[in-house]
Amino acid sequence: MKTDSYLKSIFDEVNRKHFRNKLPPIRIRFKPDIGAADARFVYERKRSWINIGLWFTSEHRLINAVKHEIVHYWQWLKYRTYPKMDMMLNHTQEFKTIYERINV
Ligand SMILES: [Zn+2]
């Protein structure tokens, strides 16, 4: 199941179930060389994407990682016009609240 279209299907399902399909499509892909992290949300001023590592030991962990990065994406959509967005894109209380909400 390590295909980019599988990742997209996870994104689409989370978007439908928890965000009423309000999240615009984002590039999401498997990438072998993303360093120490299992997954990474990457952004520039006007665009963003999600890189997922290849070393997940279970489907469950993979799905949780995608959900985690989707919350960062949600934050980016909300805060990207703020001058101090880097500070907002963190594991804030708001991040934790949203993450718990979509993990039911
Ligand atoms: Zn994170």
DSSP helix count?
4
Which residue ranges are poorly predicted, with pLDDT under 50 across at least 5 consecutive positions? none
Specify the CATH class.
Answer: Alpha Beta
Average pLDDT taken over every residue: 90
H-E order:
HEEEHHH
Structural class: alpha+beta
Strand content: 5-15%
Count of distinct strands = 3
Architecture per CATH nomenclature, i.e. the level-2 architecture: 2-Layer Sandwich
Q: Write the CATH fold name.
A: Zincin-like
Q: Ligands bound here?
A: zinc ion
Major sheet: 3 strands, mixed
Rg estimate, integer Å: 13 Å
Strand arrangement across the biggest beta sheet: 1-3-2
What oligomerization state is this entry in? single chain
Distance between the termini: 23 Å
Helical residue percent? 40-55%
Which overall shape is indicated by the principal axes computed on the Cα atoms? globular
Q: What do these coordinates show?
A:
There is one protein chain. This protein is of the alpha+beta class and 104 residues long. It has one domain (4-102): Zincin-like, CATH 3.30.2010. The protein has four helices and three strands, in the order H-E-E-E-H-H-H. The chain has helices at residues 4-19, 59-79, 85-88, 93-102, and strands at 27-30, 39-43, 48-52. Residues 68, 72, 91 line the site of zinc ion (ZN).
